[in-house]
Amino acid sequence: MLMKAKKVFVGSMSALSIAALVAGCGTANNATGGNTAGNQATGGSKNITLGMINWSEDVAATYLWQDILKSKGYNVTVKSFSDPGPMYTGLADNSLNVYMDTWLPITHKQYIDKFGSQLTKISKWYTGKTEEGFVVPDYVYKSGIKTISDLQSHASEFNGQIVGIEAGAGETGLAQQALKTYGITNMKLVTSSTAAMLSQLKADYQQKKPVVVTLWSPHWAFTKYKLDYLSDPKKAFGTAGWIQSEANSQWAKSNPTVMGWLKNFKMTPQQLGTLEEDMNNASSQAAGVKQWIAANQSLVNSWTK
Q1: CATH number for the domain harbouring residue 41
Q2: Is residue 29 over pLDDT 90?
Q3: Which strand (E) or helix (H) includes residue 291?
């Protein structure tokens, strides 16, 4: 499907836990100050700033590369954002150098259209296809609620609510349009945060209560729970898409070594899924990354050869 406009984060931790982790990793919530100083003739700057939005695959890929680059002697800062707009603005003005999680052809198209001339595409690193839409537990799907259109006649079972994510997320816009496309007049999309959505999904799933959420693939929730997308024959959420990484064009020209490594970076759905799982289950996300790297060292070595 078209692209996601996703989400926030790799585990079912609270927003407070996320903030604490991000702070512990030396992140900031606003992009200020560039990293172009100290460029070397061949390798580039030893200071790298990664932009990140708290979506599960973005958190996984960003912290993975923070660890890899630190092991190569780089000073890596992660700056976390709740909305794509400021993040892409920072990437365009080079206060951020790299962003791992651009969803195309739809979700982030507006930002690529606006800032694309100042950005350089690195690679399509995720080898699977992306999907997003309205998702229900398998027990709801098997009860006969299988399409988006079915929501109109079953609204009361969900208390008239679809549990959404951030108001500024691309997927939120697609979800609002989907309700119009299918004429769903008695359901309201409730926006809050990805963490809140996942918390509600977990609570309702454990009690086998009806719930419908906005969700996307790849996401670890599909491994943890038995979930189904509601059929979208009118393609309100689009068609299959991809994830690619982007760099500030000025930075990319000055940093060929890291650019080369990032171009080599590829992950299958299985590899990304195990990384997210390790990060969710370990004592910390950083510990989960190290655990995954240790188990996949030859793969990681192939990216930085």
Answers
A1: 3.40.190.10
A2: no
A3: helix 285-295
